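ingest -> validate -> predict -> emit
validate: passed (alphabet ok, no gaps, 322 aa)
predict: started
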Amino acid sequence: MRRILTIDGGGVRGIIPAVLLRALERDTGRLTRDTFDFVAGTSTGAVLAAGIAAGIPAERLVTLYGERSHAVFRSVPFVSGLRRLLTGTLYDTSALNALIRDELGSEARDWRINDAPIDLLITAKRLVDGMPWYFVRDSPANSCRAGGFPLVEAVTASAAAPTYFRPWLIPPIGELIDGGVGVAGNPAYQACVEAFDYTDAYDPADTLVVSLGTGKLLRRERPGWLWPWVGWLLSELLRSPAEQQTELVHRHYPHMPFYRLDLELDGEIGLDAVDRIAELRAAGERLASAVDWRAVLDGSDEHFRVTDATTLPREYCRLGPG
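emit:
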């Protein structure tokens, strides 16, 4: 059986799937890239997907959020205020690019998408016309126009969330932004389409899909003035497709083992909420303790399998105290 892993966007909330993957590696004794044949990611999920492809242990991916998020989401009052006034964004995309390049290491930082040892899908959206871009390996069945781009650049573009980071330029495509804006915050469906329709290596009858979320907010307060409304709109553009993609995968491939691991948030947690990382890590650990990875990987687990009657197991999938 072949296996596909997909990871949602969510900024620092990416520590939740990182913790889940750490539990996976502890349970199996293998790197994540040795367990999954295809990994798809959006935004922070794209960063994790690149790390997985590079063979970075999940333990390191977990510590990465605590050790380096402050450098990426570095806010200096006057400088940040001036940057927001002039560019409409808060943080330096070049710092994000440098972090990704540094963490991938001397070999993987120079990879093109085609060079990765596993199949990858990195999502982005072109700013000028809103066209989705899916960075995948070139194959006879696709357009062969995405696999030659540098992995680091594709991941940076995928993580360039509007209002947080400036769009990232990849010539000759143009400026790109977060692939989760309105389309693929959860790239599960896009990964399935790519695997089943644009390669000859995957068949729904012999494939298992695991989709990792970064927490979802089911109860949102009504915004009271302009800026909170902007934040609400961005959050909805990034969040709403996640559940839609889950439904699409289940509806189109109803007999394929499909697992969705996620938790419910008690309140809004911004992509840059570095002060909440310890809390998010603890929530991820509670969720991870409920997952039987061996049962998930062989398709026998029924607790997290997506079905017509799927609901979140709330007794341990809430962000609040243990």
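Confidence is low (pLDDT under 50) at residues 311-316.
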